[in-house]
Specification:
With about 140 residues, the chain is α+β, with helices and mostly antiparallel strands. The chain has 2 domains: about 50 residues; about 70 residues, SH3 type barrels, CATH 2.30.30.140. It contains 2 helices and 5 strands, in the order H-E-E-E-E-E-H. The protein is rod-shaped. The N and C termini lie far apart (about 110 Å).
């Protein structure tokens, strides 16, 4: 049997042997190990992207679509609530992405369509009015 020694390079491959013998396939093993490491890093990244899409991007697109449909369905006479919390009645729907709303008798305001938070349904409006009247009555009874 012949003695053969194998020197190992810092990169993990094997250097030519000093003795007479066959050299090993260390370079192929290192390339396979690098690909495994690359796949090991990409898999968690892909999972993170999927989670981000399904929990953040997709629901936001759904909410935006519902809000745009709600704004498209607003007509003259509808009651709305703005993002700032103002209740108003739509008096005019304009083509320049705005509404003319009436906050109270004689007070008209031009707002952007994107500033509408919700469209108030008649049952929701009566519930809100009833709740505020009940609250005022309770405050009056306490004093």
């Amino acid at each position: 049997m012949a003695d053969s020694t194998r020197a190992v390079t810092p990169c993990g491959g094997s250097a030519p042997s000093t003795g007479g013998g066959a050299t090993g396939g260390g370079a192929d093993g290192a390339a396979a190990a690098q690909q495994g490491g690359l796949m090991g890093m990409l898999f968690p990244l892909a999972i993170f992207v999927l989670i981000f899409y399904f929990f953040i991007i997709r629901p936001q697109k759904k909410r935006d679509k519902q809000h745009n449909n709600m704004i498209a369905g607003i007509n003259r006479g509808d009651q709305i609530v703005t993002i700032g919390g103002f209740f108003g009645t739509v008096r005019e729907v304009r083509d320049d992405n705005s509404f003319l709303i009436e906050l109270t008798e004689g007070v008209r305001v031009k707002i952007l369509k994107s500033a509408v938070q919700t469209k108030v349904t008649p049952s929701a409006a009566s519930t809100a009015t009833t709740a505020s009247l009940t609250e005022k009555e309770n405050q009056g009874a306490k004093s």
